[in-house]
Amino acid sequence: MADVARPTHEDPLAAAASEVVGGPVGDHAAPHPWWTPVRVVLAVACLAFVLGMVQKSPCVATNWADGEVRYAAMCYSDVPYLYTGRGFAELSVPYSDTGGRYQVMEYPVLIGYFAYGAALATHALSGWPDLDERRELPADQVFAVLGVAEESGLYFMVTAVLLGAVLLVAAYLMTGVHRGRPWDAMLFAASPALVLTGLVNWDLLAVALVAAALWAWSHGRPVLSGVMIGLGTATKLYPLFLLGALFVVCLRGRRLRPFWLAAAAATGSWLAANAPAMLLGLEQWTVFWTFNSDRGADLGSLWLVWQQAGHTVTPHLVNVVSTVFFAAVCAGVLALGLAARRTPRVAQLAFLVVAGFLLVNKVYSPQYVLWLLPLAVLARPRWRDLLIWQAGEVLYFGAVWLYLGEFTASGASGEPDRFYWAAIVVRVLCEVYLMAVVVRDVLFPWRDPIRADGLTDDPLQPVDA
């Protein structure tokens, strides 16, 4: 117990909150024989998953068919709508040529594989319904076939259960990234953002792979870390940015071999994951890349505010400006890493890079907060700062559904929704606040909760020359 960091001893907010249960743990307190920190974190993660399901229950009760409920109750999820929208009701294989009958899956391949696997389980649980009738109908009429609506709801439940298991894996790995600090993972498991957005899409898959990559790196396994980064990039693009953080710390320590091992492993695992889809239908596989390149300003982005304020915003403009800004962020992180007194921690640099990417991205969906969550928890494990940041996320989560349901502005009037604009700006400012705190910790390492001595480095991280 003495070797485990105690949140109530080092986190002022945790210490204050502990007063309702008797105050901070005593110096001579004996650990519970069964309720270890890891088990407590996993139990809280289970509770978060249950609360996430409860939050979606109004939509579940209507089989996701009530368009007003999904916004009024803020229970929307992409998952059940893609059951028919991408052909899973007919077991259409993702990235295969459907002759234009269904829109091609616009997500990276591991999400496509995962979604198809959940569809197979749904069909099995439904008694393998006859698909011939569905295939003879126009695609937009499949949902009306007897039993399909119920299957769509079951598909969400199957996906949710699978993602619940993924969440537990992520939480378990988070407890082991920093030796002696398993309680930091509680900031992940008890996150309000996790409860609200964990089941909006399949992003938890990438979150678990990022947690696995950070765990492997911290345990001196750069090849395994690279494999997880490659698989993460085959799930969502952003795990690729972890390689930038690894490069900075390895360059700073003049030991690039671990980086090259991780980069090679990431490339290999990414290719292995993508090869089946590329062979199945190369044109369909490229849809993810073309879709994101061609789309314009979308939900949650500062670009949308600028566009709705009356300015011209084209996909080309967004692509160019976002690329230049992101390149500047990467250059800034490199300069920060090389100029800091001590080698920064990987999670700190990775958080700054991913946050910089999201700030000017053309779309900033509510569930994208999950991209930052494990990185933020490891970069700045303090309740106060993380709750300030997530307050902005919770505000935006509510605002986006009110906006889509036209509850805060009349779509017929054509007036812009300034409440939604304000929510976007507040969300960005809260994110910038957390970025500023992390930058401060890098520049003044004794302010870093994990490096209060000003000296401690990540395991495997190259030692300053």
TrEMBL record:
UniProt xrefs under Pfam families: GT87
Q: Where do the TM regions start and end?
A: 34-54, 110-128, 154-174, 186-217, 223-247, 259-282, 317-339, 346-364, 387-407, 419-439
Q: Where in the cell is it found?
A: Cell membrane
> What InterPro entries does UniProt report for this protein, alphabetically?
GT87, UCP010361
- Give a yes or no for keyword Transferase in this entry: yes
Superkingdom of the organism of origin: Bacteria
**Could you tell me the membrane topology recorded for this protein?**
Multi-pass membrane protein
Predominant place of localization: membrane
Keyword list, A-Z: Cell membrane, Membrane, Transferase, Transmembrane, Transmembrane helix
Task: Tell me if Transmembrane helix is a UniProt keyword of this record.
Answer: yes
Family listed: Belongs to the glycosyltransferase 87 family.
The name this protein goes by in its record: Glycosyltransferase 87 family protein
Species name: Nocardioides jiangsuensis
